[in-house]
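Researcher: Good morning. I'm working through a list of sequences from a screen, and I'd like to move beyond sequence-only analysis. For each chain I'm collecting a predicted structure so we can compare shapes side by side. This is the next one on the list. No need for commentary yet; just the structure.
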Amino acid sequence: STSQGGMLFGGFQKERFYRAAQPRWRDLAASAECAFVLAAFDRLATPDDGPVEVPVDASEPVGREWSLVYDAPGFGAVLSAWERPGQVSTADRDRRFEVIWCVEPEVVRDAAIVAYGIVERVAPQVVEGIEKLLARPLEPRPPSLAQLTDLTNRMVAYVAGAGSQAA
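Model: Good morning. Structure tokens for this chain:
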């Protein structure tokens, strides 16, 4: 289980990938202090029942990635995957990604700062107050074995069930 009050950022390549995972992301956003998803949306949207939808251009580096960043007191994780080049005509289910994930607090915070920077550049009107969350002191204690096991099990189940559809 994760801590309450975290910052949640999700990166999706295309809007349809986010829409397929939207119910899950609404649930995740409900326990976060702030939540954003980045994808090739047509426009900025701030739904009451889900994360802020931030449009990013598909030509930007983030347009070839999917990611999840969760930075909360007591626990954080970052998962990032980038699509291997040369798969323009490859079916979604056959696309291949290179993936990294980490729970080290400094790495998670760096990823949150990068994600915040993208949101701030694209939609500065929706980032009020996030600087104070990014300035929270890092908690140096490592996640518990139970937290790591839970996270790993969720990631493996998700990747096995969703393939390359979404973050």
